[in-house]
Design goal:
Elements (H helix, E strand, L loop, with lengths): L3 H4 L7 E5 L4 H12 L3 E6 L8 H4 L7 E4 L5 H11 L3 E4 L6 H6 L1 H20 L6 E5 L25 H21 L6 E7 L2 E2 L9 H10 L4 E3 L5 E3 L1 E2 L1 H16 L1 H4 L1 E5 L6 E3 H12 L4 E3 L17 H7 L7 H16 L4 H17 L1
Helix pairs in contact: 4-6, 6-7, 8-11, 11-13, 13-14
Bound molecules: nicotinamide-adenine-dinucleotide.
Length: 359
């Protein structure tokens, strides 16, 4: 993999705007950029809980964060004008499939309308040179086949979340064709990654936080859909890809603009049950109970990304296999639950990950 130690100096002293910085992925990305010496501007709703990763690492005092809704175009526009970012990473979204069934309108408004607002701000901000626009592996029309999806496969979505991400891709493509391609020295890419895990995620309806809550309280881990197979990856894997891509876009905007998959090797595609077992093993105790999912809403059974483009054109590949991913994830929660500082854990894991990218 292109050595991240060589990639990160690109961001030193640069103004970088991250939407969704209070979220799981956005807070890790913002911390990583701040550690690399970037001046980070974050715009998102306030953190959802006191123990969110954003709070656990004290990000509020390390970056210039503003609470705001991406649906508020005026406020977002003012923030862009103040920040004058050279790099933009757009991660703000309603990212949960089950919540999208409960509130499809919120999901489409945020993921499509909110993304349009971010693209508008980028369009009207001459300072922006590089845009990385985060969608999802779920933007592909899921055919439940065993092959990995390639960047040029058909878009689609059964549930509102997946459809909103496919729609966000269409919007991105239109802005690219209509406005960005003609903009001199401007690099823009949409990126699609799968299910990420790692320390500090406390979102509802996600397997790792559900497991940690249960283990902490001495309760059994209850699995609804144990056989569902997902391409698990540590949160630092796709983020390392986004940073590598942003640096490449900055160096060669025309050569790297487009769409990119950042998924794990197919060996990391394991069932929910395998993941829960790995977590119990790493935690040192705990038990698992299977509950029939009854009339639970439809969730995709298998989804796997083909990442040949990132491997060959960008030199990116995943560094941590499934076991290491689970081990680092549980180590983070274990340490923080026993009173260690989230910041030192996260910074140590970022450093360990960068060392792995050397190997
Ligand atoms: N976590 C995953 O496994 C995964 C997988 C594929 C893609 N993604 C994508 O990565 C991105 C980040 O996901 P995450 O897991 O960190 O989610 P998260 O829920 O932890 O964070 C979402 C962020 O978006 C912000 N946000 C939501 N609605 C907003 C609004 N209306 N205005 C402003 N900010 C708003 C939240 O405040 C938060 O900062 C999302 O675009 C998501 O769809 C995540």
């Amino acid at each position: 993999m292109e050595d991240l130690v060589n990639v990160l100096p690109v961001f030193r002293g640069k103004r970088v705007l991250v939407t969704g910085d209070t979220g799981f992925k956005g807070s890790w990305l913002s911390l990583w950029l701040a550690e690399a010496g970037a001046e980070v501007y974050g715009y998102s709703l306030p953190p959802e809980s006191a123990d969110a990763h954003f709070n656990a690492v004290g990000l509020g005092s390390r970056i210039k964060h503003q609470d705001g809704n991406i649906l508020d175009l005026d406020r977002l526009g003012v923030f862009f004008r103040q920040a004058e970012p050279e790099f933009v990473f757009h991660l703000a979204a309603q990212p949960l499939v089950r919540r999208s069934y409960r509130d499809p309108k919120e999901t489409f408004d945020t993921n499509v309308g909110g993304s349009v607002n971010v693209l508008e701000c980028v369009r009207l901000s001459p300072a922006v040179k590089t845009l990385v626009y985060i969608t999802s592996d779920k933007c592909y029309r899921n055919r439940e086949w065993v092959w990995g999806y390639r960047e040029n496969d058909e878009l689609g979505g059964h549930d509102p979340y997946s459809a909103s991400k496919a729609a966000a891709e269409m919007v991105f493509s239109a802005y690219g064709d209509s406005f960005f391609r003609a903009r001199s020295g401007f690099g823009f890419a949409s990126v699609r990654a799968g299910n990420v895990i790692g320390g500090g995620d406390w979102s509802e309806d996600r397997i790792v936080p559900d497991c940690i809550h249960a283990l902490r309280e001495g309760q059994p881990i209850v699995l609804r859909n144990p056989e569902a197979t997902r391409p698990w990856q540590h949160v630092l894997e796709p983020l390392g890809g986004y940073l590598t891509l942003a640096a490449a876009l900055h160096r060669n905007p025309q050569g790297f603009s487009g769409t990119w998959n950042f998924g794990p090797d197919s060996a990391a595609s394991r069932s929910v049950h395998d993941l829960a077992q790995g977590i119990v093993h790493a935690w040192g105790s705990g038990r698992i109970e299977i509950q029939s999912s009854g009339n639970a809403p439809h969730e995709a059974g298998l989804l796997h990304l083909n990442c040949d483009k990132a491997h060959y054109s960008l030199g990116w590949k995943p560094c941590w296999g499934f076991e290491r991913t689970v081990q680092e994830t549980v180590a983070w929660y274990r340490a923080v639950v026993s009173g260690e500082q989230g910041l030192s854990m996260s910074v140590a894991q970022i450093q360990a990950y960068m060392e792995s990218s050397h190997d």
